Amino acid sequence: MTGFLTLLYKELLRFWKVGFQTVFAPMVSTLLYLMIFSHVLEDHVEAYPGVAYTVFLIPGLIMMAMLQNAFANSSSSLIQSKITGNLVFVLLAPLSYQEIFLAYVLASVVRGLAVGLGVYLVTLWFFDVPVTSFLWVFMFALMGSALLAALGIIAGIWAEKFDQLAAFQNFIILPLTFLSGVFYSIHSLPPFWQGLSHLNPFFYVIDGFRYGFFSASDISPYLSLGIVASCFLAVSWLTLQMLKMGYKIRH
Amino acid sequence: MTPAIEVKQVYKCFGRLQALGGVDLEIRVGEFFALLGPNGAGKTTLINIIAGLTRASRGSVRVMGHDVVMDYRDARRVLGVVPQELVYDPFFTVRETLEIQSGYYGLKNNGAWIDEIIHHLDLADKAHVNMRALSGGMKRRVLVAQALVHKPPVIVLDEPTAGVDVELRQGLWRFVKQLNREGHTIVLTTHYLEEAEALCSRVAMLKKGNIVALDSIRNLVNSVTGCRVRLRLSPDVLPSTLQPLLSSAEEGYYILALEGYFLLEHVMEALRAAGSQVLEMQILQPDLEEVFIKTMAGTEIAKSARIAETTALPT
Ligand SMILES: Nc1ncnc2c1ncn2[C@@H]1O[C@H](COP(=O)(O)OP(=O)(O)OP(=O)(O)O)[C@@H](O)[C@H]1O
Ligand SMILES: [Mg+2]
Fold first, then answer.
1. Of all protein residues, whose CA lies closest to atom 30 belonging to ligand 1?
2. Pocket lining for ligand 1, CB < 6 angstroms
C-alpha cells in the first residue's frame, strides 16, 4: 500500500512542482477560448433554448481542459521517465502493474479535476453558470479524466520520441475533443455528421457533463455514463495488458 | 543454504542478437562477486534480468530463493541495483529522491538510515539540492544511495566507479566492504580489474553471452601456468635465440613469457652467450588482468580455428 501511495504522491508532486505550467497555464488558455468564442458567437448561436451561448460553452470548455490535461499528465510523465531512463526506479521497485496503473491514472485525474475546478471558479466571477446536479458533473468529470489518463498511459508507453507523442495528441486526442460538441450541440449538425459524432466517445463525456449543468442533453445521461464507463474499462484493460507484459518498458 | 542469486540456463535474444546464451551462475550469501567481461559481453543484460528490468527469453532467476518473475515483490525487496546508466529524476532534490525510493519499498520512517547513507556517500551538503544541479559523480552517488535505501541483503552494482574520482571510489568501496562485512552479498561489474582483484573473492568472466571462467581469484591466478620476466639489457637488443619467447617490448624493456621457472636458466645462458648484460630483471606475478586477457583470447583462438576448419571444408 505504501509503495502505491508513494508513487501516487510522486506523480502528484511532479505536476504540482511545475503547477504554473500544468495547472495555471491551461486555465488561462481555456479562459482565452471562452472570451474569444463568446465574443464572436454570443449573438449568433443559441444551442439550447434559453441558455446563452457563453454559458452553454463553459461546461464544454471545462471538460475539454480536463480531458487534455489528464491525457497530458500521464503521457508526458511516462515518456519523460522513459526517455531520461528514470522509469527504472519504478520498475525496480516491488510495485505491481495494477498499482502503477492506478497511481498514474489517479494523479492525472487529480490534475484534470484541478484544472477543471480552477476554470469553473474563475468563470463564476463573470457568468452565472448553474449546476443542477453536482453528482452528474462529478461523475462525468471523473470518468472523462480517467479515460484520458489511461489513454495517456498507452500513448506514453507506445511513443518512443516526443514527436510520436505529439502526433498521438494532435491526430487522435485533439480532433476527438474538438469534434465532440464542445462548441456546439450536435443537433445543429447535418444528420451524417450527427451520426458520426455518436461514434466519438468524447461526445458522451461532454454531453453528460453538460447535463449536470443544464438538465438538458442530446442523449440520456445514464446512457452516456454507461458508454463512457465501458470505454474506460476497455481502455484500462488494454493499458493493464501492456503494463503486464512490460510492452516497451521491460525489454 | 539458499543462494543469494541463482541463475539457471538463462538465454536472452534481442531480435536476432543473442545477448546471453545459457548462463548458469550461483552466488552464495555473503560473497563479494565480480562479473567481468568486455563491452557488450552481456553483463548489464544479466543484471537487468536479475532485477526484473528485462525478461529472459528462457531460463529462470531467483534472488534469495524468490523467483524474479513469479515472486517479483519479494525478489525485488531483497535486491538493490545501481544501474550502469546515469539516470535521475530532475523534478526532485536528493533527499526527496531517497524518500520516494524508500516509499516504493513500503518504508515510511526511514529517515535515520537515509541520513546514514547520505553521510557515507558524502552527500550531506547536497541533500536539498535538485538532482539536475549535481555533477556526474554526485549523481552516481545518489544512484548508489537509492539502491541502498531499503537495506537490501543483495546489492548489485553495474560499473559504479565509471566516471568517479579517486576519493569517492575509495570511499565507496570502503562503504561497500563494510556492508559486505555486515552480511550483504555484493555483485559488481567493473572494467578496472585491479578493483575486482582487490575486493572480490570470486569472479565470473562473460564473453559474448557465455560464462567462460568462474572461480575464486586465487584459483584463476594460479591457473596461469609459467611466468613472465621483464628485462632491460645492454646493449638494448634481444638475442635472436630468445625472440620466440618475447611476449611484448616497450621502451627498452623486454617481457618474456616462460613456460616455467626452469626456463630462467636457459634465458640466462642465452644472454651470456650473446654477450648481453642484464641491467634490470623482474619476475612478474600473474594477475587477474593476465587471466582476463588469456581467457578472452583463448576462446577467440579456439573459435577462429573452428571457423578456419569449416571454411576449409568445401575445397
Ligand atoms: N534493449 C536492447 N535492444 C537490443 N540489443 C540490446 C539491448 N540491450 C543490450 N543489447 C545488446 O546485447 C549485448 C549485451 O549488452 P550488455 O549491455 O549486456 O553488455 P555489457 O556487458 O553490459 O557491456 P558494457 O561493458 O559495455 O556495459 C550487446 O550486443 C548489446 O548491443
Ligand atoms: Mg553494461
1. B40
2. A 251; B 14, 17, 19, 37, 39-45, 84
DSSP codes, A51-95 = S-HHHHHHHHHHHHHHHHHHHHHHHHHHHHHHHHSTHHHHHHSS-
What does DSSP assign to residue B130? B
Q: What is the pLDDT of residues B246-269, one digit of tens each?
A: 888 888 899 998 888 888 898 999
A83, closest residue in chain B (CA to CA): B87
SS (H, E, C) B80-117: EEECCCCCCCCCCEHHHHHHHHHHHCCCCCCHHHHHHH
Rounded to the nearest 10 degrees, the angle between the axes of helix A53-84 and helix A2-17 is: 110
Q: Per the structure block, which three cell numbers stand in for B233?
A: 639489457
Residue B49: name the closest of B61, B39, B38 by CA.
B61
Place of cell 453528460: A208
**Chain A residues whose beta carbon lies within 8 Å of the beta carbon of residue B103:** 2-3, 5-7, 9-10
d(CA B217, CA B201): 6
Look up the pTM and report it: 0.89
Q: Collapsing DSSP states into helix, strand and coil, what is residue B276?
A: coil
For chain B, the structural domain boundaries read: 5-78+152-221, 225-285
Calculate the alpha carbon distances from A137 to A184, B208, B286 in Å: 19, 60, 77
The C-alpha atoms of residue A136 and residue A129 are separated, in whole angstroms, by 15
CATH of B5-78+152-221, one of 3.40.50.720, 3.50.50.60, 3.40.50.300, 3.40.30.10: 3.40.50.300
**3-state SS, residue B75:** helix
CB atoms within 10 A of CB B60: 15
From the list A5, A81, A250, which residue is nearest B53 (CB)?
Answer: A250
What tens digit of pLDDT does each residue of A112-127 get?
A: 999 999 999 999 988 8
B225-285: CATH topology is Alpha-Beta Plaits (3.30.70)
* Cell numbers 470518468: residue: A143
Please list the ranges in chain A whose pLDDT falls under 70: 44-45
pLDDT confidence of residue A44: 67
Instruction: Supply the DSSP symbol for B203.
Output: E
The number of residues making up chain B comes to 315
- What is the number of the ligand 1 atom nearest to the C-alpha of B38? 25
Q: Which residue has the cell 583462438?
A: B301
- CA nearest neighbour of B148 among B129, B190, B120: B120
